[in-house]
Amino acid sequence: MEKSSRSRVIVGRIVGTHGVKGSLKLKPLTDYPDRFLDMDSLYLELPEVRGRRRPPRELAVQEMRFQEGKDLFIVTLEGIHTMEDAEELKGALVTVAPEDRVPLEEGVYWIDDILGLQVVDHDTGDVLGLVEGVLPTGSNDVYEIRTPDGALKMIPAIKDVVIQVDLEARVMRVHLLEGLWD
Which residues form the Ribosome maturation factor RimM PRC barrel domain (predicted)? Predict the structure, then answer.
């Protein structure tokens, strides 16, 4: 899940219009697209127009349905009744407050919660750096760690390496397997 510029979390994007009565095509940008079926309103961060920022809008959902085969939702919003109204919302990001994200299983974290964590060697107590990026590889993620001397090192996000993640203290404790940090 990408993070928006206003510390809200991006969960979707309005990618187009549908029909002539103001319906919109919503592309989910979340691992949990079913969340849209339970949303009463959408908080839309509108794209800039000619370099001018537009204020966000929160609009009540009148109808939301999944469009099979297209991985899109078709949504009708209160106050949007024409294709022209809908065109104004094209490109808008659908965001939620961080506390409204879907709860995760224990030991699973949102990428934006992992970014910036201080990484500490569990065995020595040495500060190794800060998590700067997360690379999904299919089998497991890989954390990019920026060391105090500016080097970029990688560690796999596996149980044998990541011993503890303390989001409140903003610390990740890791056990460096032989040859991993060299």
Answer: 112-180
Dihedral angle over CA of 133, 134, 135, 136, nearest 10? -160
Q: Output the furthest CA–CA distance in the chain (Å, rounded).
A: 64
Can you tell me the distance from the alpha carbon of 14 to that of 27, in angstroms, rounded to the nearest whole number? 6
pLDDT of residue 2: 43
Q: Clarify whether residues 22 and 81 are in a common domain.
A: yes
Residue 64, domain extent: 9-100
Say how far apart CA 151 and CA 112 lie, in whole Å. Answer: 21
Q: Are strands 72-77 and 57-67 parallel, antiparallel or unpaired?
A: antiparallel
136 and 86 fall within a common domain: no
- DSSP letter, residue 6: T
Residue type, 49: V
Domain match, 119 and 160 both:
yes
pLDDT of res. 158: 92
How many domains is the chain partitioned into structurally? 2
Low-confidence residues in the chain, pLDDT < 70 = 1-6
Structural domain ending residue among the three candidates 52, 74, 100? 100
Cβ pair 74, 18 in contact under 8 A: yes
